[in-house]
Amino acid sequence: MEDAYIAYNSLPGYDNMALFGVFDGHGGSEVAKYVAAHFLEVFLKRKQLKDGNIGQALTETFIQI
C-alpha cells in the first residue's frame, strides 16, 4: 500500500474541528508520507484558517506542499 493518511480528532487552538486525509502515493510512497508528516503543521499556519476560510486554507496548504 502506497497511501498515507492523517486523522486528527481535534486541532490545537480550534474547538470542534477535526482533520482527516488520505494521500495516494501513485506508484511511490515517499510523497504521500511527506504530505502526511507535514500537512497539519502547514495547515495550522495558514492565514485563511485563522480568518475562518477553511476551504481556502486547505487549497493553499496543498499548493504549498
Task: Provide a compact summary of the structure.
With 65 residues, the protein is α+β, with helices and mostly antiparallel strands. It has three helices and two strands, in the order ββααα.
Low-pLDDT stretches? none
Give me the strand/helix succession: EEHHH
Distance between the termini: 22 Å
Mean pLDDT: 93
Helix content: 40-55%
Detailed description of the structure:
The protein is α+β, with helices and mostly antiparallel strands and 65 residues long. Helices cover 46% and strands 15% of the residues. The protein is built from 3 helices and 2 strands; from the N terminus they run ββααα. A two-stranded antiparallel sheet has the order 1-2. The protein is globular, with a radius of gyration of 12 Å.
Write the layout of secondary structure elements.
Elements: E1 4-8, E2 19-23, H1 30-44, H2 47-50, H3 54-64
Antiparallel strand pairs: 1-2
Keywords:
single chain; 65 residues; alpha+beta; two-stranded antiparallel ribbon; 46% helix; globular
